[in-house]
């Protein structure tokens, strides 16, 4: 059995490229239009983004997009059983004492 190297594997150039996505690529990845991402960025909504390089190109981290999607799923009652009102324990109606 050959000895295993303790060094981390060197990522391929393609893997480095996909770690950061442009607005167009991020929109395609999320199934949205680039305009939607621009509007969300302007309103400080949507997935986190940042400006990169001397031209200030808007970029998205692939891992941040995945995390944002998971947050959206957890915030939706259809994906999170704990938020589904149909799963909430039934509350007994309170009995009011009426004075005559």
From TrEMBL:
Residues 20-72 form the Helix-turn-helix domain. Residues 74-100 are annotated as: Disordered. InterPro entries: DNA-bd_dom_put_sf, HTH_17, WH-like_DNA-bd_sf. This is Helix-turn-helix domain-containing protein. It comes from Streptomyces decoyicus. The lineage of its organism: Bacteria, Bacillati, Actinomycetota, Actinomycetes, Kitasatosporales.
């Amino acid at each position: 059995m050959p000895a295993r190297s303790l060094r981390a594997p060197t990522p391929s150039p393609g893997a480095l490229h996909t770690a950061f996505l442009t607005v167009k690529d991020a929109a395609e990845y999320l199934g949205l239009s680039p305009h939607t991402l621009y509007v969300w960025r302007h309103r400080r909504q949507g997935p986190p983004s940042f400006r990169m390089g001397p031209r200030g190109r808007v970029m998205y981290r692939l891992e941040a997009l995945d995390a944002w999607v998971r947050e959206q799923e957890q915030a939706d009652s259809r994906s999170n059983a704990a938020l589904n009102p149909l799963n909430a324990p039934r509350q007994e109606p309170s009995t009011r004492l009426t004075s005559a």
